[in-house]
Amino acid sequence: MTDLFADLPAEATGPLRARLAAAAAQRGLLDVAYRTLDSPLGSLLLAATPAGLVTIAYAVQDHDAVLASLATRISPRVIRTGLGLDETARQIDEYFAGRRHTFDTPIDLQLARGFRRTVLQHLRQVGYGTTTSYAGLAAAAGSPNAVRAVGTACATNPLPIVLPCHRVIRSDGSPGHYVGGDAAKTALLALETSQETR
Amino acid sequence: MTSAPRPAPPPRPAADRPGADAPRPPFDQLISDHGAVVLRVCRAVCGPIEADDAWQETFLSALEAYPRLAPCSDPRGWLITIAHRKAIDQHRRAQRIPEPRAELPDIPTGHGIPGDDRRQQAADLWAAVATLPFKQRAAVAYHHLAGLPYAAVGELIGCSEPAARRSAADGVAALRARYRGALA
């Protein structure tokens, strides 16, 4: 190797990447867009397909692992960009600031199938500042005996916060587990209670 | 993740073979890992002005083909192969305008902004690379910037391994003669 190129300054590819993402979207090649968002509960990974928001992941879920999974399950055409995600990020910011109680971002539920998907769709009816039990959600989803399956659906919810699985608690009133960690669930419930009683 | 026994993987990336079931990393990983190197290669082979467009075209083509890329292949070699095709297209377009080749011009040294010497040096270096014949600058870029072995370089530019080695050596010698910044 020659030393001729040893002192070249680092190449800044940032503007090129932004341009590439825009061109990819225009040509229908942006199968999965993602960005991160700093939140009071740590860094959140947001990912979207052209159909809508497809994943929200907490740092404890390992963002690299989540991205690898999206590449396998949806498409390897995964690009970091705010395109199609910045508005969602703004809404989540507002939610954490207590200024937003519902989300009106399009969602893509392709990562949830069958009964799990049905359960997730019913989550939207559990309003801000309220809670339901796993048994209650099972009944609402039309399968009152499928309490364990409801628990699994919540545990594998690809869109926590936007699909509020944190509002599903145990019948004894204790919060139960959460995809973002039990402390995150308690924090979200506390946030919503404090806003609701204002 | 089992697959039927296959003969040894081909030495060159097979871009258009239907992909196996093995997972591919997110495309963004390729941009992070190889984007800067590909940009340098584009600067060297396509010239500083065309480099950005060549980079865009390279990564857009790569993105389009990525789901079909054989998972075992070497992504950097694959990207450089695509960049090379873009460079050839661009080179052919440029050749329609006759290029003065008889007398090589002196490389403008420019007046570096104080504290920005490296940037100026880099601009001078790219200008010097641009004066090399296409084959030499391609050989220099693919071996010295992208790190491809000479056998792969030869396959890309259509010559034998020793010829690729010679092209790169001639290119580096010419750069040393014309570009004084790196030696200062």
TrEMBL record, chain A:
Protein's recorded name: methylated-DNA--[protein]-cysteine S-methyltransferase
Lineage: Bacteria, Bacillati, Actinomycetota, Actinomycetes, Geodermatophilales
InterPro entries: MethylDNA_cys_MeTrfase_AS (IPR001497), MethylDNA_cys_MeTrfase_DNA-bd (IPR014048), MethylDNA_cys_MeTrfase_DNAb (IPR036217), MethylG_MeTrfase_N (IPR008332), MGMT_N_sf (IPR036631), WH-like_DNA-bd_sf (IPR036388)
Family: Belongs to the MGMT family.
NCBIfam families: ogt
Tagged with keyword Methyltransferase: yes
SUPFAM superfamilies assigned: Methylated DNA-protein cysteine methyltransferase domain, Methylated DNA-protein cysteine methyltransferase, C-terminal domain
GO molecular function, one term: methylated-DNA-[protein]-cysteine S-methyltransferase activity
Domain Methylguanine DNA methyltransferase ribonuclease-like, first and last residues per copy: 33-109
UniProtKB/TrEMBL annotation, chain B:
InterPro entries associated with the record: RNA_pol_sigma-70-like, RNA_pol_sigma-70_dom, RNA_pol_sigma70_r2, RNA_pol_sigma70_r4_t2, RNA_pol_sigma_r2, RNA_pol_sigma_r3/r4-like, WH-like_DNA-bd_sf
Biased composition (Pro residues): 1-13
Region span, Disordered: 1-27
Entry-linked SUPFAM superfamilies: Sigma2 domain of RNA polymerase sigma factors, Sigma3 and sigma4 domains of RNA polymerase sigma factors
Ranges of residues in domain RNA polymerase sigma-70 region: 30-96
Keywords, in A-Z order: Sigma factor, Transcription, Transcription regulation
GO biological process entries: DNA-templated transcription initiation
Molecular function GO terms recorded: DNA binding; sigma factor activity
Pfam entry (one): Sigma70_r4_2
Domain RNA polymerase sigma factor 70 region 4 type: 124-170
Family: Belongs to the sigma-70 factor family. ECF subfamily.
Designated name of the protein: RNA polymerase sigma factor, sigma-70 family
